[in-house]
Write a structure and sequence with these properties.
The protein is mostly helical and 401 residues long. The protein has a single domain, classed as MFS general substrate transporter like domains (Growth Hormone, Chain: A), CATH 1.20.1250.20. Helix content is 81%, strand content 0%. The protein contains 17 helices and no strands. α3 packs antiparallel against α4 and α16 packs antiparallel against α17. The longest helix is centred in the middle third of the chain and has 32 residues. The two termini are 21 Å apart.
């Protein structure tokens, strides 16, 4: 139930508090989800991992976090965001602590599976935050919430530095402690929107309704490209920059963190633009931009200013696309199935980020170049553009959106 529906002319202070704690919780969960990526090169050196083995290790949390979004979306529709966010933070602590005691490849793979909990947390906040705000504000608001993805950038920037300053174990203990704090915040001060009640009927029927919606799969198609590429670059860009341009691990991780940060900051811009000019127009422009920019970086130019601008422009485009997708989710989804819709769309986007790191590792192992994998991104974005452009024209629901 939206803030408008329950009688608010404008969002209350409680609404903005809910937005704030949800965003902070997402930042910490995404930090936990992304702990392996900034240290990937060090683990590869310590355990003598080949590029494909490292790619698999980095990809495991992505696929688990993606599939977990479906389940968490269903659970959030049933129990509400407050309790689900608290429990998710507590569960995400376990693999983070276990990571401190993992020193073999098999142990890391096992822990990586459960690190996916942090990545699944994203879907909890979409219905939780949406319920506090009227539809005309949801694009911007959900874009702000989605800035919780900066947890990936925080991980890229802080994790290698903390590893050097206080050691790997204490770095993991710190992240686990922050997750515990956020769980307490939700338990003690968190509230669902006024008037929220658990929906009646079967959770399976609500999920089936979301799964049958054409809107769900149209937006999932776009999100596979925009969020999938965002996740893939967030996970693999430190390795790509280190290998392609000879950067130090810290420098490569910092540049990758900048990519993730810009993409995340662009999400509310995409949401705001979707509110103003329509999400479908934003998505069209984004996909064309991804095609052009991915083709340019696929040429693997020398690390000059134009290369940096190209990568940052790609980050901005992906972020705007992500924001526009969930602006449409917030506007077009029924409140009682919004968690399920978010779960499906989010899962597809996350799965879109699972294969690219593997492809990057495999193609580099075979060709000593990342060009083929980057050209595949351009081809995927072009295919998505032609598909979704036709869907926007055919589906009356998208009119004036």
């Amino acid at each position: 139930m939206s803030a408008k529906a329950i009688g608010y002319n404008r969002p209350s202070h409680a609404a903005y508090f809910a937005l704030t704690i949800a965003t902070l919780a997402l930042i910490i969960n995404f930090w936990a989800w992304s702990l392996l990526s900034p240290l990937g090169a060090r683990y590869a050196s310590e355990l003598s991992l080949n590029p494909l083995s490292l790619s698999l290790l980095l990809a495991v949390p992505v696929i688990v976090g993606s599939l977990g979004r479906i389940l968490l979306g269903i659970i959030t529709d049933k129990f509400g965001g407050r309790i689900v966010f608290a429990v998710t933070c507590l569960l995400a602590m376990i693999p983070v602590i276990a990571l401190a005691f993992s020193d073999t490849y098999s142990q890391l793979i096992l822990v990586a599976i459960f690190l996916g909990i942090g990545g699944a947390a994203f879907v909890v906040g979409i219905p939780f935050v949406s319920a506090w705000f009227p539809p005309e504000k949801r694009g911007l608001v959900l874009g702000i919430y989605s800035m919780g993805n900066t947890g990936t950038a925080v991980s890229g920037f802080l994790t290698p530095r903390l590893d050097g300053a206080i050691g790997r174990q204490w770095t993991y203990y710190l992240v686990a402690s922050l997750l515990f704090v956020m769980a307490i915040v939700f338990i003690v001060w968190g509230r669902n929107a006024p008037g929220w009640k658990p929906p009646k009927g079967s959770s399976f029927k609500r999920f089936a309704s979301a799964a049958k919606s054409r809107i769900t799969w149209d937006l999932a198609t776009v999100y596979v490209i925009t969020f999938g590429a965002f996740v893939a670059f967030g996970v693999y860009l430190p390795v790509l920059l280190k290998v392609s341009y000879g950067l130090s691990l810290t420098d490569a991780a910092s540049r990758a963190a900048g990519f993730v940060l810009l993409a995340t900051l662009a999400r509310p811009v995409g949401g705001w633009l979707a509110d103003k000019v329509g999400g479908k127009h934003v998505i069209r422009i984004v996909l064309i931009a991804v095609v052009v920019l991915a083709m340019f970086v696929a040429l693997q130019p020398t690390l000059q200013l134009r290369t940096t601008i190209a990568y940052l422009s790609l980050a901005f485009a992906l972020g705007c696309g992500n924001g526009a997708v969930f602006a449409l989710v917030g506007k077009l989804s029924k409140p009682d199935i919004m968690g399920s819709v978010t779960g499906i769309v989010g899962a597809c986007g996350g799965l879109g980020g699972f294969l690219p790191p593997l492809i990057l590792g495999f193609t580099y192992q075979k060709t000593h170049s990342y060009s083929i994998a980057l050209m595949m991104l351009a081809l995927g974005a072009l295919t998505a553009f032609f598909y979704i452009n036709k869907r926007f024209q055919d589906l009356s629901t998208y009119k004036a959106r």
